[in-house]
Design goal:
This protein is an alpha+beta fold. The strands form 3 sheets. Strands 1-8-7-4-5 form a 5-stranded mixed beta sheet, with no helix packed on it. A 5-stranded mixed beta sheet has the order 9-12-10-11-13. Strands 2-3-6 form a 3-stranded antiparallel beta sheet, with no helix packed on it. Helices cover about 15% and strands about 30% of the residues. The chain has helices spanning about 5-10, 150-165, 185-205, and strands spanning about 30, 40, 50-55, 60-70, 75-85, 90-95, 105-115, 115-125, 125-130, 175-180, 215, 240-245, 255-259. Strand 10, helix 3 and strand 11 (about 215) form a beta-alpha-beta unit.
Length: about 260
């Protein structure tokens, strides 16, 4: 069995998961006007290991409040940082110190402007890679052969088990991304990896998977083992299964396709 690479997951951890104004009531004395103020978070500046995020407000900022919750529901950190009227659009860096090493399940961010209004967003840094045995395809084929079906059945069982334990997170999607080795041309490999990812996605849906499923192929652009061109490396012929609340980021012009 082979685990999907951590690099793909680490590059794509967070995006806003709740609209402005969702979440707890504002701090005492603040007037709630969720639609009057935009609070945005730069995905590329979210650093779970460094425990900091970058926030921007659409109006001059008075302060930013943050609440970090763990997978158990426990509050890991709750704090606020003043910004003394920082201009609209200024990157506002907010850090936190957690009370334990529990995995972060949700981060609530509330921006307050200088006029006393507030707005908030919640981000859910949750995703999980499903370990699995790789399906072996024949050369240049995306047909799933009968001997490979037990591998997919085992993966489907693991996917179902994880989802059953995380229903409180909201809408979870299965993301499937295909990869190839460097044998063959880049465009050919890109197309082949996409076809194989789609074939597996269709197999899961055909076996009754109720989750939304999206797929994409990256061809030879994200090898697990770096090699020269035209190298037959089995570890690079793989497919990643990722359960996530939000779409993982993909490199280049790649984009998720809904099945």
């Amino acid at each position: 069995m082979r685990h999907a690479p951590a690099l793909l997951l680490a590059a794509s951890l967070l995006v806003p998961a709740a609209a402005r104004g969702d979440g707890p009531a504002p701090a005492p004395g603040a007037q709630a006007r969720p639609q009057a103020l935009d609070v945005t978070i730069d995905r590329s500046k979210v650093d779970l290991k460094g425990r900091q995020i970058e926030v921007k407000l659409s109006r001059a900022a008075s302060k930013v409040r943050i609440k970090v919750l763990g997978q158990s529901g426990a509050v890991l950190a709750e704090d606020e940082k003043p910004f003394n009227g920082a201009a609209a659009g200024t990157p506002l860096v907010v850090t936190w110190t957690p009370s334990s090493d529990e995995t972060v399940a949700r981060i609530e961010v509330y921006g307050h402007d200088t006029q006393g209004y507030w707005a908030g967003v919640a981000i859910i840094p949750w995703n999980v890679s499903i370990p699995h045995e790789e399906v072996q395809f024949e050369t240049n084929s995306d047909v799933i052969r009968a001997p490979e079906v037990p591998k997919l059945e085992a993966s489907l069982q693991r996917i179902s088990e994880v989802v059953a334990k995380t229903t409180e997170l909201g809408k979870i999607t299965l993301f499937i991304v295909g990869h190839t080795d460097t044998v063959g041309g880049e465009e050919h490999n890109l197309t082949l990896s996409r076809r194989r990812a789609r074939a597996i996605a269709a197999w899961f849906k055909g076996r009754g998977l109720k989750l939304p499923v999206a797929y994409e192929g990256l061809g030879e652009s994200a090898p697990l083992v770096k090699t020269a061109d035209q190298v037959d490396e089995p570890k690079n012929r793989r497919v990643d299964y990722i359960l996530s609340v939000e779409p993982p980021r993909l490199s280049g012009n790649a984009s998720w396709k809904a099945l």
